[in-house]
Specification:
2 domains, alpha/beta, 2-enoyl-CoA Hydratase, Chain A, domain 1, 49% helix, 16% strand, 8-stranded mixed β-sheet, single chain, 14 helices
């Protein structure tokens, strides 16, 4: 497990517990009792630590390499998944994946960013930063969902859209804007969950949804704390200050009224209990789809547009 500095005392204690488990604890009542005491202490420390994370620490947790990624959610909650590739124009983007599948028996289209879990897969998926063809693929899949009248599920986990020269030459900003427009116009329900990092237009391009949720320790921002610090203070050293000022945590975003709810993570973060996290997300998506079904296309689109047009308006 990757080291988070604020978790160091917990990881040290977990290391001692692992050593004790290699001993035959059944042969010593005192050793078994000590093991139980240490395990309870770990739970207590995790609860206390994760109950008061700073925004900068939440950024670290949201980016943790062991958090469940798009592929994990597909494996854990989608049956008969059939990946679909290409934008029918330029190429297939590996950063933004999607396809058809069954969610709790219901046909759906599911799209989302895949960051990769090791060096090879991260390079393959471009660290979850989609190019224009990725967003055009998302548009194609959302229109397919509309054609077959099935809901769309989107899972957001990206630092942002890829800012490279080639992406800009192929119309990155237009592709993002068109994806947002497509989200607003499709006549089927869209449920979106920020499962890790929701970065700027790269996130909102597939998160302009009827219901938007965030995992407890995920983040959602117009710019990364490092990018903000580089612009405002001319130094990435102020990233912690930027993280606080940007109001990027799920709790901040909910207070601003920009999401519909927060999905609890297991004690110690999603990276410690992937299966439970995926189940929590699945349960919330199921509730959202039940609330949105059956749907009237015109009313659905009107409510979605009203939702986003209301953002930023004075109460």
């Amino acid at each position: 497990m990757s080291l988070l500095e604020f978790e160091k005392p917990i990881l040290e204690l977990e290391g001692k517990i692992a050593e004790l488990r290699n001993v035959d604890v059944d042969s010593s009542a005192d050793l078994a009792e000590e093991l139980q005491r240490m395990e309870k202490k770990v739970v207590k420390l995790l609860t206390q630590t994760y109950g008061k994370l700073t925004p900068a620490q939440k950024v670290q947790v949201a980016r943790h390499q062991n958090r469940p990624h798009f592929g994990d959610y597909i494996e854990g909650m989608i049956e008969d998944f059939t990946p679909l590739a290409g934008d029918r124009n330029f190429a297939n983007d590996e950063a933004l994946l999607g396809g058809l599948g069954r969610f709790n028996g219901q046909s759906c289209v599911i799209i989302g960013q895949e960051r990769g879990s090791d060096t090879e897969s991260r390079l393959k998926h471009n660290f979850g930063m989609a190019r224009p063809e990725g967003y055009r693929k998302a548009q194609r899949l959302m229109k397919m969902a509309e054609q077959f009248q099935i809901p769309v599920i989107s899972l957001v986990d990206t630092a942002g859209a890829y800012p490279g020269l080639g992406a800009e030459e192929r119309g990155q900003s237009e592709a993002i804007a068109k994806s947002i427009e497509t989200c607003l116009n499709v006549s089927v329900p869209i449920v979106s969950v920020v499962i890790g990092e929701g970065g700027s237009g790269g996130a909102i391009a597939i998160a302009t949804a009827d219901r938007i949720y965030m995992l407890e320790h995920s983040i959602y921002s117009v710019i990364s704390p490092e990018g903000c610090a580089s612009i405002l203070w001319r130094s990435r050293d102020y990233a912690e200050d930027a993280a606080t000022a940007l109001k990027i945590t799920a709790q901040d975003i909910q207070e601003l009224g920009l999401i519909d709810g927060i999905i609890n993570e297991p004690i110690g973060g999603a990276h410690r209990a992937k299966e439970q996290t995926i189940q929590n997300v699945s349960d919330q998506i199921e509730k959202a789809l039940q609330q949105l079904s059956p749907w009237d296309a015109d009313k659905l689109k009107a409510a979605r547009r009203k939702k986003f047009l209301s953002f930023g308006q004075a109460a």
